[in-house]
Design a protein that fits this description.
β2 and β3 form a beta hairpin. This protein is 29% helix and 44% strand. The longest helix is centred in the first third of the chain and has 11 residues. It has a single domain, classed as Alpha-Beta Plaits. A four-stranded antiparallel sheet has the order 2-3-1-4, covered by helices on one side. It is globular. It contains two helices and four strands; from the N terminus they run βαββαβ. With 72 residues, it is of the alpha+beta class.
Length: 72
């Protein structure tokens, strides 16, 4: 399994974090760490699927303003 970290900026909207976390789970990625900060969310995930499968879906969420992968 591969470990990856994403930094995601969300619009301030009701249930935005819930939608984000649900999408991660539904795509088969295991969430290992979540750090909520006023400016965004840092997610660490382990995965067997290519990370691009998750990032493409996250970018489609209306609540996501920006998304970047961080070096582990």
């Amino acid at each position: 399994m591969t470990q990856s970290t994403l930094y995601i900026t969300l619009r301030p909207a009701p249930a935005a974090l819930e939608r984000l976390l649900r999408l991660v789970r539904h795509r088969g990625f295991e969430l290992t760490q979540v750090q909520w900060q006023p400016e965004g969310v840092r997610l660490s995930v382990t995965h067997e699927h290519p990370l691009s499968h998750l990032t493409r879906q996250l970018e489609k969420l209306a609540d996501v303003v920006s998304l970047s992968e961080e070096a582990v």
